[in-house]
């Protein structure tokens, strides 16, 4: 999970730099070093709370948000959308990579449980992170995507929810609503897409 969220945050900073904002780059946050991204609350406390709330059925964490000065983007509105999508997009690519690792293990007849479980977990964790971050509530990436798509008045109203966003998400997780109505169906769809992409390659072996 730490590796997945590290690349997730680095992707935000990298795309922001491509689109005109060097804030994250200048602060050393476009980095694969997990220590630059770890947030004590989001990387340690939140996963522990969710582990006990869901009896280990659901685990999620986040790193320190990468600083982005949206007004520096060449097109602040649409630039913020692409910066937000970069994180979940990176997680989906990581899920595909772990899927290819699974294919490679099978092709080499490596059935060591540690490696096969790690590859399977890599796919699952990254799909969950991608889907959860796309939930349309700020400060999650999906909230920023929705804010970019809404008219200015509605976008400002949505942005006012940002200070309470994670607490709302935790409440939805605790009640099971987020898992039932958002995570389960969309993660299943993600698995279907990953399987569709990987199947032609798996058939070669």
From TrEMBL:
Transmembrane region(s): 41-60, 81-108, 114-135, 164-182, 188-204
GO molecular function: metal ion binding; metallopeptidase activity
Localization per Swiss-Prot or TrEMBL: Cell membrane
One CC-aspect GO term: plasma membrane
Principal cellular location given in the protein's record: membrane
Domain Peptidase M50: 2-103, 122-155
Gene Ontology biological process terms from the UniProt entry: proteolysis
Keywords annotated in UniProt: Cell membrane, Hydrolase, Membrane, Metal-binding, Metalloprotease, Protease, Transmembrane, Transmembrane helix, Zinc
Entry membrane topology: Multi-pass membrane protein
UniProt cofactor(s): Zn(2+)
Pfam families registered for this protein in UniProt: Peptidase_M50 (PF02163)
Homology family: Belongs to the peptidase M50B family.
PANTHER family: ZINC METALLOPROTEASE MJ0611-RELATED, ZINC METALLOPROTEASE YWHC-RELATED
Protein name, entry field: Peptidase M50 family protein
């Amino acid at each position: 999970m730490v590796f997945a969220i590290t690349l997730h945050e680095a992707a935000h900073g990298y795309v922001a730099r491509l689109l005109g904002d060097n804030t994250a780059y200048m602060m050393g946050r476009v980095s694969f070093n997990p220590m630059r991204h770890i947030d004590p609350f989001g990387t340690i406390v939140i996963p522990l709370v969710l582990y006990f709330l869901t009896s280990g059925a659901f685990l999620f964490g986040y790193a320190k948000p990468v600083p982005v000065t949206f007004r520096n983007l060449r097109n602040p509105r649409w630039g913020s959308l692409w910066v937000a999508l970069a994180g979940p997009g990176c997680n989906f690519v990581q899920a595909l990579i772990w899927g290819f690792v699974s294919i490679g293990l099978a092709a080499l007849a490596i059935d060591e449980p540690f490696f096969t479980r790690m590859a399977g977990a890599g796919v699952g964790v990254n799909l969950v992170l991608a889907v959860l971050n796309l939930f349309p509530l700020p400060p999650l990436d999906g909230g920023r995507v929705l804010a970019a798509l809404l008219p200015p008045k509605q976008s400002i109203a949505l942005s006012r929810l940002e200070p309470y966003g994670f607490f709302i998400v935790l409440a939805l997780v605790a009640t099971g609503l987020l898992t039932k109505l958002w995570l389960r169906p969309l993660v299943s769809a993600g698995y279907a897409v990953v399987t569709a992409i990987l199947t032609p390659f798996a058939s070669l072996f």
